[in-house]
Amino acid sequence: MIYIFLLLFLLLLFYSRYIEPGLFIMREREMISLKIIKRPVSILHVSDLHLKGQVPTRLIRIIRKALKKGPDLILFTGDFTECDQDLAHLDKLLREFPDRIPRFAVLGNHEFHHYPVLHVFHHTLFQSKPRDIRPLLDLFKRHHIQVLRNQTRFLKTAKASFALTGMEYTDHVDPLPSFHWTGIRKGYFHLLFFHSPDLLHFFKKEDYDGIDLILMGHTHGGQVRLPLIGPVVTRTRYTKWIVDGYARRHSTFISSHRGLGQSFQFRFFCRPELVLLRIKPPEAHSA
């Protein structure tokens, strides 16, 4: 009997290490907005690529499949590569996202730090080293991807008017910027996006006012999810109530991304994903 359990364990280990990390899926989510959304709008959310070496063919396929859905906007929420040597692979991947679609990005913790493999288990014993973000910013500039570093950009399309606020990853105790979002124009759909859900820990109830949608990543959905137990490692110190999926906080919708890569090469019951969000006006929903 013990040999059967050992064999089963080894099979699950093999699946988690070599199979599931490559089983990319596309998940579609929908929300209704009372703001001035003239026609349904689609947003492609890309997060936590963690590129290491060649870009997987299956990843390119799922990206092309998502692009065929005709997204109106593409947002990246950080953690693009594990080290600077992989920027050439990121360069290749970014070519898949056409210039005709507005693209915006924020930076994650892996843009500022290089982490040893065992860092996820003990932060003190296995400390990170700083990274230079300038080569990555140059790469984004060449691809005409706007990086928002605690900034808001206003975007008007034939379908909707967006206020896009991108907040940068920080290790500070209270990272909410002093400018806040008091300058958001009336009638604009306010979309806030950042890397880590830890930022939500510092939100007061009034901070959610005027924010229609929040997009974030970092947690990888737990990456390893055990039946009846849930995610094993969430990578968040404070906000464990949304490591994966879709939720609502006060009047704000929040979407958390499982990521497309992983910092340690295992996934179990938590397939890597692309997320396509559809924002609809009330009349389109009732129709």
What percent strand? Answer: 25-35%
- List how many beta strands DSSP finds: 16
Tally of contiguous helical segments: 6
What topology, given as strand order, has the largest sheet? 1-16-2-3-4-7
Give unreliable regions as ranges: none
Radius of gyration: 19 Å
Which series of helices and strands comes N to C?
A: HEEHEHEHEEHEEEEEEEEEEH
Q: Label the structural class.
A: alpha/beta
Name of the level-1 CATH class: Alpha Beta
Overall helicity: 10-25%
Biggest pleated sheet: 6 strands, mixed
Q: Would you tell me which CATH topology applies?
A: Purple Acid Phosphatase, chain A, domain 2
CATH superfamily: Metallo-dependent phosphatases
Which architecture does the CATH hierarchy give at level 2? 4-Layer Sandwich
How is this structure best described in words?
- The protein is globular and about 65 Å long.
- The N and C termini lie far apart (58 Å).
- It has 6 helices and 16 strands.
- The longest helix has 18 residues, at 2-19.
- Helix content is 19%, strand content 25%.
- It is of the alpha/beta class and 287 residues long.
- It has a single domain (2-286), classed as Purple Acid Phosphatase, chain A, domain 2 (4-Layer Sandwich), CATH 3.60.21.10.
- α2 (57-67) links the parallel β2 and β3 (73-77).
